[in-house]
Amino acid sequence: MSLSPSTLKHYFTTPEQQFDAAKLGMWLFLVTEILLFSGMFVAYAVYRAWHPEVFAHASELLDWRLGGLNTVVLLASSFTVALSIHFVQKGENDKVTVLLILTLLCAAIFMVVKYFEYSGKFDHGVFPGAAFAPHGEGGGHDYAEYDMPFAAQFFSIYFVMTGIHGVHVLVGMGLFAWLVTRVIRGHFSPEWYTPVELTGLYWHLVDIIWIFLFPLLYLI
Amino acid sequence: MAAGHHHIIPIRTLGFVFGVLIMLTILTVVTSRIDLGVLNVPLALAIAGGKALLVALIFMALKYDNPVNALVLLLGVVFAVVFLTLTLTDTELRGTLGITESGTTILEGGHTEEAEQAVEMPAPATGTLPVANPEETFETYCALCHNFTGETAVGPTLMGLGDRQPSDSIRASIMEPDAVIISGYPPQLMSTTLNAMGFYSKVDDASMDTLIAWIASQ
User: Fold this and answer.
1) What single DSSP character describes residue A14?
2) Distance from CA of residue B63 to its chain's centroid?
């Protein structure tokens, strides 16, 4: 291919080596992401071990149906990303465009659901940190019941974990929008599609993080 | 590079994996709504682990990839597990080490037989402590020696105790005051006083829970 991004850098011997190096670099970045989130998972584990009763009570405020819906939406977006790589490897770029737009849509649905979850909490004074002051009634919950010692920490952990995950989803949306414009401009081919592959890896990791967040926060 | 160099994962495989992931999601929701006792958490984590493995092996193509990428991922996971294990080993096994004040050291082993007897010798039951009003309990039984202002009185201050100690340690400090005595404070004073006031015969689980929560929240 004659497109400039696919040209072999002088310090690589073969395009294959260039591709593998880019991918290894991406995996190293993904490991730093895992370690970033592991700090929050450790905070979660310590909190849960210290205040199991408060955890059990406070987590009732999270709606597993919304969390489950978001899980399905993210899994579907991982599927469309995997399919887009299948088709970019075959050179069927029209399908790649459609699949990447579908991925973008799934990510948007995820963020909309998250918006409703967050605003439902904020309306009743369920904020992270010192502003925590639950009040009012809604969705079968008497929010005042959740104004107990250490409940604020549960919601701080919830908001920080899902918030940082949500920022990753937003970044992913930006990346997919960028990829769509590049597919349309004909930048990718079976010979060179490194950005699609690497963004796909990033997106799958965001999915994996949510695969753990969903049961830990909403279910158990 | 030729397309043949890269493994193209068949649509059938991708679709099958997606189907399994959705079914596992349904499974984890269903099992979480059944009370399996201690098994609920490990089962949910096992299902999540299985889903993550499927995503990593097929969607992220580690199964077909240069093994060095899987090795990098594995190393990251190993370090996350080390992080989690060592931290929980600390926070779960530190016991009453959190009771420290500047200029004091902790004396372990102040747990004498006499002290244990003093705690376990029940005075006649004269009614239980108020569950809904832990502050009243505190004023009656604790405030003589403890405060939340940071000043050292007869006993050490409880200021910020909730940030320093898990509720289990606070509970142990109340129910068995002589198990650990901070140097400088007289042993058996608290257990004897509380026993004389009938605290141990009046307290039950519910009033203890609210008292600890209230103390920790001050």
Assistant:
1) S
2) 38
Chain A residues with CB under 8 Å of B91 CB are: 46, 49-50
pLDDT mean over A178-191: 96
Residue B110 in contact with residue B176, Cβ under 8 Å? no
Helix (H, G, I), strand (E, B) or coil at A116: helix
* B83–A190 CB contact, under 8 Å: no
By C-alpha distance, the chain A residue nearest B41 is A220
Question: Using CB atoms within 10 A of its CB, is residue B45 exposed (0-12), middle (13-18) or buried (19+)?
Answer: middle
Contact indicator for A155, A132 with CB cutoff of 8 Å: yes
Please, what are the domains in chain A?
14-219 (1.20.120.80)
Domain B106-217, CATH homologous superfamily name and number: Cytochrome c-like domain (1.10.760.10)
Q: Is A75 on the interface with B (CB under 8 A)?
A: yes
B72 touches chain A (CB under 8 A): yes
B69–A71: do the CB atoms touch at under 8 Å?
no
Sequence spans of domains, chain B: 3-93, 106-217
A91-150 residues touching B, CB cutoff 8 A: 91, 148-150
| pLDDT per residue as tens digits for the range A45-89 | 999 998 888 898 899 999 999 999 999 999 999 999 999 999 999
ipTM of the complex: 0.93
Cβ distance A41 to B80 less than 8 Å, yes or no, reads yes
Return the structure tokens found at A198.
């690497």
CB distance from B40 to chain A under 8 Å? yes
Query: Could you say which DSSP state residue B3 is in?
Result: G
Range list of β-strands (E), chain A: 137-138, 141-142
Q: How many residues does chain A have?
A: 220
Between CA A196 and CA A185 the distance in angstroms is 14
**Residue of A26, A79, A218 to mutate, interface with B, max B Cβ within 10 Å:** A79
**A194-213 vs A151-184: helix axis angle to the nearest 10?**
160
- At B10, the pLDDT band (50, 70, 90 cuts) reads very high
